[in-house]
Amino acid sequence: MRDNLYVLEAGNIFANVNANTTSGSWVGTFHATGTFSGSLNARELGGFVAQGIQQRFWIEGDLAANVSISEQVRNYNIAAPEIEVGGKLSASRVFKTGRNLPSGTVFSMTPVDGLAGCVILNASNSTFGWSGDVKVDGITISPTSYGAPYYTIASSALGGGAVGLVPYHLYVNDCSPVSTGSPGPSLFDSVLNHRFNDPDRDKSIYLRFYGPVFAVPDTTRPVRIEYNTGSNWIDISHHFYINVESTAASTSREVEIHGGNGESAFMPGEYRISPVAGRLKCAQTTAASAPDVGDFMYYF
Prior knowledge:
Layout: E1 5-10, E2 13-18, E3 27-32, E4 36-42, E5 45-50, E6 53-55, E7 57-59, E8 63-69, E9 73-75, E10 83-85, E11 94-97, E12 106-109, E13 118-121, E14 133-136, E15 139-141, E16 162-165, H1 189-192, E17 205-208, E18 213-215, E19 223-228, E20 233-235, E21 240-243, E22 254-259, E23 271-275, E24 280-282, E25 298-299
Parallel strand pairs: 1-3, 2-4, 3-7, 4-8, 5-9, 7-10, 8-11, 10-12, 11-13, 12-14, 13-16
Antiparallel strand pairs: 5-6, 14-15, 17-22, 18-24, 19-20, 19-23, 21-22, 23-25
């Protein structure tokens, strides 16, 4: 598309829409009274009023498409949300902006489980923060509500998805089990080792982040797992299985960790997990090189 996209309105939209991405180009009204499936790539979304009509991104059904806004979502103080989804942002779908949601901007999803996919801010890995509001069934996530960008409300209360500011940090209250520091939660060797080959007994550690992650394909593990001997920490990562997506197109926010059924028993004591530099990366960004996830330390 060579020029600005002033208006696109339809019942259901099943299309891959590539708007003009040159400097100064934008999308005005993008409105489906039903579902939007496919994709939208554009430079800017502009919420503004023209001839008494509020121009904005408005999907009345489910947003089952990937949306990539390379620059900014503009806020011109319209009354309605600049971005409104009447249904869900579907699981495995991503809405990302290279910059942020400016102060006063609202991204609203109506149902109680409306955030099943991922919203990504600062996808360009620049220095843009989080200023606007993301609302799910009346729950507002912002810097003044739930402490965004590293908000505390669990994803289960929102639909299973998340809002991530690049680089993504560990989503502490979404990990399983939750670990808020040392000492961490207690785990039985028998279940973490998957010794019984029984899905009802076997358990894994799930590290979850505010955005999708992947491991750079390599022989080096993406996380380091250490045991506290009492006088120092020793690396025992080779005793664990670490499962994580391996491409930058990943939409999974989790890293699964467990022992192997043939492994010797883990010693009682304290363990910790941390990222290996250059190995565990933020997925679905628009940066020239995928950034590392934010540093963390998980104890168990």
